[in-house]
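2 proteins. here.
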Amino acid sequence: MLTRRIIPCLDIKDGRTVKGVNFVQLRDAGDPVELAATYANQGADELVFLDISATTENRKTLTELVKKVAARINIPFTVGGGISSIKDVTPLLEAGADKVSLNSSAVKNPELIDELAKEFGSQFVVLALDARKIDNQWIIHTHGGRYATEKKLFSWAKDVQNRGAGEILFTSMDHDGTQSGFAIDPLQKLNQLLSIPVIASGGAGHPVHFADAFLTGKADAALAASVFHFGEIRIPELKLFLKTNQIPVRL
């Protein structure tokens, strides 16, 4: 088994880190620059920064804030929110991003995935798939979970892989913020379907949930927010727990 990654996520709104339940009821979780520095020092493997209101507010990602975060960390850094063209990417790269995350813009214009993969390489392109189960189907949602689309999770995941995405960030909107555990069944199916890494997101509440995502869900990485932001789980203790359960992690 390859080394599994632990990834804190900073959901940013109005320059602050926020966290909600099922993508709503947002509450303040702290300063993103200080949180990022803390997670890097604790041993996080990567960091994800999502400007969650950039698309709905029809603006670009907060580049200056990205620059401040990048200056305080020494781990891979994925940035998403408001990216709709190649020209949106260069300022983020210059600000310190290692990868970019797409969701709404890729659903609207799937060719953007091809263009970014060709221009910067597949390893640079992360596809965020926010999905909710409706009538027994996992349906992709956009604009911070506000709008259901006609795209189904598994067929869309296969499509974005074929277009050049290097990684999938799958968030179960039904599990998000509930701390009831990750959505294991769709994780398993994505792992079977795809040859690119899958990051589990939505539902972490206990170290055993991370172990389940890796051992049963076969995720390559696990992302969480509130349990880290509010001190319910510390990354060093989480990694020790995973290691004692024969899950390879970087200590």
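next one coming up
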Amino acid sequence: MPFGTGQRVARFFKKTHDEYQLFDPVVFNILKDWLRLYNSNAESDPEYILSCSRDIHIDLYNFLINQKYPEDWKNIFKDAKSDKQLSHQKKIWFDTFKTLKLIHYLRDTSYPNINMFDALDMLFVKLEIDNKISRNSKDIPELRVQRQYLRLLREI
């Protein structure tokens, strides 16, 4: 059963969409690296941050350009009266809505959604969890195997 809106649940039962898809976990690695850079006390120059973002991923850089990061931040630095105010502006500029926009941008440009069970296998590897669940295919496993995934997730 999908998590989400009534529309999403209806799609699941009509089988009009593959609801067993998740964002590629690589997207969240890029987001983690971006947040580490963005929230660091490193040099505050927007051009420096923008340059470092390109090193993280070119599509992160492109997203920031599309979102007018350099122009916005030059104005924010010019108007900020204190470090506290600057910190507050950082939270406002890169809020949850913009975070989701970045995730969707990365999905649409570089990392399309992947099979949910492939994503879970990647998660288990990253968390160094011994996953002895065997799937016969890359498709949606039978319900018995899905329950094994659920049990393993509940142990985390």
